[in-house]
Each structure stands twice: as structure tokens, then as C-alpha cells.
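name: query_chain
kind: protein
chains: 1
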Amino acid sequence: MYVVHERLYVYLNSDFLFYLKIVMELEETNVFSYDLCMVKKMINSGQMALILPINDFKISHRDENEVSKMINWLKSIYSENTRVSRRDA
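structure:
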């Protein structure tokens, strides 16, 4: 039973640390407001929303170029090998 609890703790702790890191990175831009799972930013009269579930992002904005800029910014922080999939709404 101890091993299960330990693994669960490590898993949850790593996700929480990831969340704290991304929130700190976004705060450095000084224009984001957020709650526990969503980050918002006004760009070019439109709202960009980043939804932060466990270890993925959902990024939305009416201007596809703004989404691309955000993806490139995130890749510059984490890795150029970050996997991105786009879906039309």
C-alpha cells in the first residue's frame, strides 16, 4: 500500500510543480489573470484563453496567429519537441 501512495504523491506533486512553473512564467508577462485552471489575456481586442488541465494546454483566440505566437513562446520555455495538435472549432 505504501508504494501506491508514494507513486501517487510523486505523480500529483510533479503536476502541481508544473502548474506552479507555468503560472510563474505567465505572470512574468504581467498581463494574465487566472484562476486554478484557466489563464486569460486580452490581445488585439480578443480574449486568449489557456486552459490548464493536468499536463496539457488548450489555447484559444479568434486570431490563429496569436495562438501560434503563444505556442512558440511555450516551446521556447519547454522544448522545441513539444507536441502540438490543432483542431478547428
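note: The CA atoms of residues 42 and 75 lie 21 Å apart.
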